[in-house]
Batch of 4 targets.
Target 1
Amino acid sequence: MNTISIVGGGIAGLALAARLDPERFDVTVYEKRPELTTVGTVLAMWPHAQRALEAVGILDAVRGCSPVIGSGAIRDAAGVPWIEVDGGEMVGVSRMDLLRLLDAAVPDTVGRITGRVHAVPSGADLVVGADGVHSAVRRDIWGEKSSARRTPYIAVRGIIPVPVQPGHVGEYWGRGDLFGIAAAASGTNWYASYRSDLGPAGIDVATALRQTRSRYAGHGLAIRDVLAHATPELSLVQRIWTTPPVRSYVRGRVVLIGDAAHAMTPNLGRGACEALVDAVTLADFLNAAPPDQALAAYDRRRRLRTQSLSLASSALMRLALAEGAQPLRDLLLGLKGRRQPGAAVGSVP
């Protein structure tokens, strides 16, 4: 039996632990938090992520506690719609529910070690870095040049216990800021992003909420109404970080998955989805082939795709958070919306 150490017990790490064959592998998960998070916003599950959830065995449970995202619009800051967006069969699951279901899917044979990992664990046949954007595994093996890069933006997110207004669903693009409104099982999910000097770490949620309300005071009524109901207890704030591309997600018997491999801005709503696909793809290759072949196949399958998505997400962030070019952007999108009413171009992140 091969030994596998998974550093990180978040979405990617738990999905991998749940999918690996317990008859073939002796798996240990290292997680710094003693318990699962109790605050979390909604994550959009694209079809390829839903297939990964089905492989893990929790898709029906996820659908059972998740609203269908449905339709929405890309709008200007006042709420005037530019482009209609159809969410299709996408569902939005809260991070709390997703982690709870993934954790329950992990076999009892998997070992659990709680505590912060500062370097790559020794003694395992394979080490998997699933420890997020500030991955100690990535920094230790790929070097300091691979460390996370800070963006000038923060993400403020939350849930309010008020039913979502269907006519308000979508993203609102202002001058250097964006705001999103979507359905949640317990009410309304919202998120905001803009340039801020708070942080970079340990940002006080109440302070961030005050700054956010001030930032969006001149925006549309739908945004102001959501923020009026927001509370620190049901909100999160964090600096947005990304990771630079690397030539391979594999070095020797160390491999990266999820944000440790390809942390991207949240503008495409793909970070959690790609983490799930990473985990299931790696597990399936390991379950079916010798380790060296499995790792090489995983790297070929996932690296170029995820790095392309990371670039696309950054490009969309620059468009959505445009400042100097915002009037031209609004003019072009407004014209597109008038020429193509009701066009479906994607899905609300």
Target 2
Amino acid sequence: MTKRKKREPWTGAWFLELAIIIAVALGLALGIQAFIVKPYRIPSESMEPTLDVGQRVLVNRLGNRFGDPSVGDILVFHPPKGAETDTCGDPQTGPDRRRPCDLPTKQRADVNYIKRVVAGPGDKLSIVDGHAVLNGKRQKESFIKPCPAGNPNCSFPGTITIPADHYFMMGDNRGESDDSRFWGPVPRDWIIGGAFATYWPPKRIGLL
């Protein structure tokens, strides 16, 4: 007759092991979000038609540490505090409608925005009918939503020069975007990362 193997007494070791596995997995997930890739939900219509309200994108936080953004990149960033009140520069109360704002407020806002880079450090920029005129050349920008006729937010014909280490951000929905035109360029250090893919809804899965 075969003896039944004696069951080892339960010591709780398996529970401890499970707890460690869960803690490690949670730590990895948080670490990935904090330093490598972070999900972001589109909160407004400012990036239509490229990104719709409620759409989810993935933001590469690591790549931002090794290279500078380029014109055309879609970035998540902290705007200046002037973004909350459409203030162009600390001493002013609003944008000069003849030219885009080139004087960001010095304090950083706690909110996150997502926009497209239209000009970088040293570039000369004006806005005509919603299109960026970059270093004297009107950009084609086939991805933008056309500006409605007569919209005062669409033309800032005066030319500005983007300050060193700053980037000028605009939404693709040029007639309905609250962006650098009104509160100025964004310092390099305030950029969180570049959006590189969309993962929700399923029918919009793909690279940006």
Target 3
Amino acid sequence: MLKIAWSDIYAHHLPPGHRFPMEKYNLLPEQLLYEGIAEPDSFFAPLPVAEEWILKAHDPVYWQRLKNLELSHKEARRTGFPLSAGLVHREIVIAQGTIDCALYALELGVSLNIAGGTHHAFTDRGEGFCLLNDIAIAAHYLLDKQLATKVLVIDLDVHQGNGTAEIFQYDNRVFTFSMHGAKNYPLRKEISDLDIALPDGANDMTYLTTLRKTLPGLVAEVKPDFVFFQSGVDVLATDKLGRLGMSIDGCRQRDQIVFDLCKQHQLPIAVSMGGGYSPKIADIVNAHTNTYRLAQEIFF
């Protein structure tokens, strides 16, 4: 049975009408239950993450200023969110959700967090709807607990995983791979261990051919014993922030490539949902639902 991190906190603490599609966090669990992909017992509500794990990935001064709501107006504006105690609480719950998913993945092969994928959070700052980097926090947890020795981050959100790249730039225990839009946010890219930048309008064939040529060899070279997958659906042609040209079925095939490879190599995989900003919420939910459907079909 799938184990899925979800809390009603995920959909709270932003003003009504904010352009970030918060409603997906409630609609997605409903869709998974409706289709029988998940059962009520599939869902678990994470607790807030312990501060010691935040400090493995983030600068203590930044964390104290974030926790005490002391970020400047300019710093808060870079995150895209109005800063509040509720928002910070939401972030630390999401981070624990990804740690919990990693632990379930070690047991079951796969686990998914309905939120997370906050890959624009750097060691010392937040950007782009990201304040704390859940994947970086969870990777440090596994490594420090000696539950993994080599972690591969597969970041297939349309935006480069710049914060994750910066956090692990000098840590050879974590290999960061980002495949993203070349001309999309962020304007200034960081250097991941492997970056593949795609042109505007890249369609299913271009995207999937590139991924199929890259990922098997990467796994063979890196030899990870754990995978974190940032599965943003802002690669869709319908996405208002995406600039790529993928269909919902192409996005589904993308996820299948990742899951099939992890299953083949018996690599536990923890999935964070990442971005998705199509005008029709149904497009976002359908694309995310495919990720869960595939996880259920391939691993159970």
Target 4
Amino acid sequence: MEYNSMRSTILVPFIFALVLVITSVECNSEGDILYSWRVLITDPNNVLQSWDPTLINPCTWFHVTCNSDNSVTRVDLGNAGMSGPLIPQLGSLTNLQHLHVQINNFTGTIPMELGKLTHLIGLGLSQNQLSGPIPSSLGNLRSLRYL
């Protein structure tokens, strides 16, 4: 009986630590995605100055909102004078509900990977310099209410 109690005492903190590591890995990957996009964006008004890749997760960055699990749910970069591409990796922000980049100078095509964002409610792309067709994968976005 004493052995089982000791094993539980050791196992519980280990499991808790493992959950924290898994959670922070997910948050770091979201931060990595957003920062890799940030590197490609021209930001003349320095709107993205708080996007610091050394932080544990991007939830403290301006224009980024997260849920209680520290997963990115919203990115608001509308009317910020930015230019650059939309990157396919944005499709890996699995809990993203809102992506607003309207009234900027984003260029290139709309990544088909955005069609993987099954929780997406709002996608603001208007008044940019985007080209090419709207990807058919956006038809998979059953929660989308605003395009």
